[in-house]
Specification:
66% helix, 171 residues, globular, mainly alpha
Length: 171
């Protein structure tokens, strides 16, 4: 089952994307979207720090099993890193370097690859990839949500950057 903290983070990221999707969004929407993105990035960073300090992680990152015995996912390294990358890509949505590189696209693509690897592991029942004795896996729906969110962020600026080349008629 999806961790409620993960679900809240994904909802906040979706709202941030909605607020920032219009290239000429209002100043209020832009600031609110950036604040949500920064919060998502901070949440992921905090979970990464807690994940590597196991004595604290056991209290904060694990939830008791559900009544049917199924495990609730822990915010492990993949989920935490994905939150940091999603937050960074939302913050850098309109940013472009002098050379034309868009770092938000790279962060989003890495998140999509992490999600795709988890989905492939689930599809082929590669349990060693997503479960161990001390690690509760990301749920299937979490992987789907991260993939859809990363795709949505990439498509928010389909007229710019790498995606503009991919979707152009001359590609």
């Amino acid at each position: 089952a999806m961790n409620p903290i993960t679900a809240s983070g994904l909802i906040a990221a979706s709202i941030a994307l909605f607020l920032r999707q219009a290239p000429e969004a209002s100043k209020k929407d832009t600031i609110l979207g950036q604040a949500l993105a920064a919060g998502i990035m901070a949440m992921g960073g905090c979970f990464l720090l807690l994940f590597y300090h196991e004595s604290v992680a056991a209290k904060w990152l694990t939830l008791p099993s559900l009544s049917d015995g199924s495990l609730v996912e822990a915010n492990g390294a993949r989920i935490s890193a994905s939150f940091v990358l999603i937050g960074a890509s939302l913050l850098a949505l309109n940013y472009k370097t002098v050379g034309g590189f868009r770092p938000g696209e790279l962060a989003c693509a890495i998140t999509a690859v992490i999600a795709i690897l988890s989905l492939v592991a689930y599809a082929h029942h590669l349990t060693a990839f997503y479960i161990s004795a001390t690690y509760t896996p990301a749920s299937f729906l979490t992987s789907v949500c991260f993939f859809l969110l990363a795709t949505g962020i990439l498509l928010a600026r389909a007229d710019r950057g790498t995606l503009a080349i991919i979707v152009s008629e001359t590609a």
